[in-house]
Amino acid sequence: MAGEKTVETTGLLGWIDRRFPLTSLFKEHMSEYYAPKNFNFWYFFGSLALLVLVIQIVTGIFLVMSYKPDAKLAFESVEYIMREVPWGWLIRYMHSTGASMFFVVVYLHMLRGLFYGSYRKPRELVWIFGVAIFLCLMGEAFFGYLLPWGQMSYWGAQVIVNLFSAIPFIGPELSVWIRGDYVVSDATLNRFFAFHVIAIPLVLIGLVVAHIIALHEVGSNNPDGVEIKDGPKDRNGHPVDGIPFHPYYSVHDIVGVAGFLIVFAAIVFFGPEMGGYFLEYNNFIPADSLKTPPHIAPVWYFTPFYSMLRATTADFTWILAGSAVVGALAILVKSNFKGIWRLAVPVTLLVVAVLLRLIDAKFWGVVAMGGAVVILFFLPWLDHSPVKSIRYRPTWHKYLYAIFIVNFLVLGYLGTQAPNPTFNLMSQIGTVIYLAFFFLMPVWSRMGTFKPVPDRITFRPH
Questions:
Q1: Angle in degrees, CA 444, 450, 456, rounded to 5
Q2: Confidence class of residue 104 from pLDDT cuts 50, 70 and 90?
Q3: Which residue, 19, 96, 267, 315, has fewest beta-carbon neighbours within 10 Å?
Q4: pTM given for the model
């Protein structure tokens, strides 16, 4: 009958397809989703992030079966999992290692997007969903970090929650509301458990689905930054420079999965603590509210932002305020700003300079730490380069990216170390470099001589 949907499958699959679009979904997102044929090593990490998400969910379910979210029993329940539950030690180490490996692959996935301009039009929403996933991961890791109820878990949560008290007017009440008590206690543990096990995973899974749907709607980017949808098509209307994701990239990703699982298994079986970076030694000691560890630091994947928090001291805000005043005067005396902007920008800088001195440095530390992540949402509108991919940008742009990466790693290392004047100065310089990379991007991203971008993707079979 005209207009009636044709069902091509029979048997059980046909019965399902008449009630649920299983085959059409598989075709749309796998076998008939055409991806650029020049994907390289960097394109493994999206699939690996999905794999680690599955590992974390499955191991988390098994851990919850034996874990007790009670301040008196939490630490003992973790010990029970490690010593008494059959294969409990393996499940716990897979979960703790998976937490760190999640951030490894996500950081590399985001770095690839930065290299190849995957946040540029028409993929702005894909990038926004991705940064939202990153924020959820940070929240998930933070809430889960308290659950073992060890010394570093307890005091790390105490320090981080106390940061909210620096927010003017509502800070003290907000920190009490987050803890559910005046100190980190059983009420805090129960709240964090609920967020870690139920609330954030639901949001995280929803964002991952939205991220993939948005990606498949506009198509994948590639190392050349060329849109294959705008290129030549074959007689079936498929991009000539594309190949079906399945079976080509689904099989291709198995190589990345195999390599990842070898590394993952090596860590789980031979070094799950990774020298105290994946599992801190203080966390094998029960939480004691009367004994503060000599050096409190978050897990390694938070330390770059923790360095920015510690770097923002009262002396540093003087320097920033002075820089804002000098910038305002420079714009007033000589600048290319015209009309209302010639006055608005200097006035804004002067207001910022005043606020830097009126409000406590602790608050500005929280702003710097949070702003370092939030600014990623605006990356599609900060980059004004005429090309997407780093391949066709000026050579000195690559040096800027290299400085940014090294600076981020140095900030991460400094965040693991006990504070001292030298490290604090290095953290302040690193914070300025990190923020300047993004705030000055509208200027430097347009500068230099750009290479011509090919009409079609460049590809060498391998």
A1: 130
A2: very high
A3: 19
A4: 0.92
Peptide bond connecting 223 to the previous residue in cis, omega within 30 degrees of 0 = no
Lowest-pLDDT choice from 130-144, 230-244, 346-360, 419-433: 346-360
Task: Express as a percent the part of the chain with pLDDT over 90.
Answer: 62
3-class SS at 173?
helix
**Measured in whole angstroms, how far is the alpha carbon of residue 183 from the centre of its chain?**
29
pLDDT above 70 covers what percent of the chain? 96
Sequence length of the chain is 462
Question: What one-character DSSP code corresponds to residue 244?
Answer: E
